[in-house]
Amino acid sequence: MTKEMKKEFTYNLKHINYSNIPPLVGEMMSLLKNHHYGSFKTDVNTAIIGCALEIENGNTDPLELKQGFEIHLMHDIGKLGMSSEFLDFSGRYTSEMFDEMKKHSEEGANLLEKLDFDVKVYNAVEFHHSNFDGSSYPGGEKEAAIPFHSRVIRIADSANTFLTKFCEKEGGSGVFEDLDKWTGNWYDPDLIASFNSLHNKVMDACKKLGVSDPSQTVYMERLVHLYSDSLPLTSVEEVEQHYSL
Ligand SMILES: [Fe+2]
């Protein structure tokens, strides 16, 4: 790797001036939106899927759902330490780049801790890439010791990544199968059972529209329609309006 490349692909949060930032979700989302709009949009979609998954898992408390939604929104705040060149890089990461990228979970948690967010928030952010069996990064916890919201994000983030591949074309019907291959290893089995239930409801709603293999757009429209009574916010535009971004 050349010296010039190293700078672009080196994790760095030094541009964040901690003394000027109030510990507010809107502040964090504003920073992320201005830093990299694609990451901001991805995190909103992950938050919507994650919140629907919590509802399907039996959470009916509006305050808890709102808190969970906000944790999901901020899970990748550590990406503020990755340059847009790094975030937009579409090639294969070198092991050096992978090591730099992995810092975003712990560094994101450190950022939120320094800004005085609640311990529940930064603990969930720290472990959002931890697999259920304790593998992946940063390591140190497994199964129920991994914070609940981290286990939700682990699934919602993957589901959103699979759906994004089918952004404007078919493919959403296979999302559950793709996740289920890793149940127990990567994903919490109890939460995967809830995702199965969510997915079946979304697919039934798609079939009623005559769509058997939905694009991301159709899948998300049906998901939002099914859970709209309990979701705190239902789109990128609503998040932007709510937090005046
Ligand atoms: Fe992440």
Description:
The protein has about 240 residues and is mainly α. It has a single domain (about 35-240), classed as Hypothetical protein af1432. It contains twelve helices and no strands. The model has no long low-confidence stretch (mean pLDDT about 95). It binds fe (ii) ion (FE2). Fe (ii) ion binds next to helix 6.
What can be said about this structure in brief?
By secondary structure, the protein is an all-alpha fold. It has 12 helices and no strands.
Keywords:
245 residues; mainly alpha; Hypothetical protein af1432; 12 helices; 0% strand; binds fe (ii) ion
Give me the strand/helix succession. Answer: HHHHHHHHHHHH
The CATH architecture name reads: Orthogonal Bundle
Number of helices: 12
Question: In what range is the share of β-strand residues?
Answer: under 5%
Q: What is the CATH class?
A: Mainly Alpha
Mind summarizing the main beta sheet? none
What small molecules are bound in this structure?
Answer: fe (ii) ion
How many strands in all?
Answer: 0
What is the rounded distance between the termini?
A: 37 Å
Task: Classify the fold: give the CATH topology.
Answer: Hypothetical protein af1432
- The helix-and-strand class reads mainly alpha
Query: How big is the Rg?
Result: 18 Å
Mean model confidence by pLDDT = 95
Query: Helical content, roughly?
Result: 55-70%
CATH superfamily: Hypothetical protein af1432
Which outline best applies?
globular
Contiguous low-pLDDT stretches (5 residues minimum) are none
Q: How many domains comprise the coordinates? A: 1
